[in-house]
UniProtKB/TrEMBL annotation:
It is a multi-pass membrane protein. It is found in: Membrane. InterPro entries: CysZ-like, CysZ/EI24. The keyword RNA-binding does not apply. One of its GO terms (molecular function) is high-affinity sulfate:proton symporter activity. This is Sulfate transporter CysZ. Keywords: Amino-acid biosynthesis, Cell inner membrane, Cell membrane, Membrane, Sulfate transport, Transmembrane, Transmembrane helix, Transport. The chain crosses the membrane at residues 23-49, 61-88, 163-181, 202-227. The lineage of its organism: Bacteria, Bacillati, Chloroflexota, Chloroflexia, Chloroflexales. One of its GO terms (cellular component) is plasma membrane. GO terms for biological process: cysteine biosynthetic process; sulfate assimilation. The keyword Transcription regulation does not apply.
Amino acid sequence: MALLAGLHYPWRALLLIWRTPRLWNFILMPIGLNLVVGVALYLGVYLTLWRQLQAWLAHDAVWAGVLLWLLGAVLALLLAVGVAFLLVRFGVVLGSPWYSQLSEELEALLTGRAVVANPFTLRRVAYDLWRALLFEAKKLTLGLSLWLPSLLLLLVPLGGPPLHAAAGLLLGALISCLDFFDGPQERRHFTFREKLATLRHTMPSGLSFGLVAFALVSIPLVNLVALPLCVAAGNMLVIERGGMRVTDDESRHSSLYNGVLK
């Protein structure tokens, strides 16, 4: 069944990575980087807010001590969720140098054809980062344009909140697909409209994959491993089901890209 076909891609990606040691570096490096950034951000914000709570509840009464620890526990939980969300949004950008190489290796493995990579230069890195940030801005705009109208569902009696929650899940799946399908498309320098067209081409398997990926990357700590795994799985799905192949159009995109860098 096509709808369920996307569910097995994370497990296929895990098996392929496990059996291909040369891919491990492209997985472990971004995990390590995101771990360092996540821990530093978490501790920095938590300790700052914890000191403010201590100053606010500087009281000798027993209730003040109990309230302090309760608020500290709630703060720790909420901050973990917040940092997890930030890692999902920016972890792909931080790990993009390794994920792009992972994407190239995966496409070569799946198609049996070597991928022609652009030369590594500082100008290329700067241009790729600019495109990545622009992509994030367009995803944010798309997400807000869909999420804000969905708030009207809350006005529907009885069924409003469940409908709004379902809309949120679908939006999360959409953004996850855009994130994790991006490698082969970015290498071909697709426009945002072309990336949306590729997403439509992968349906309905892309929908089931997006829901699984969104669930995995939403779990604190688990998302450190889930991010590169879903990057690999999404690349595999879009290569196999998104019509990713070497064409004259790809050569045109590559020529335009190289022209920008000159």
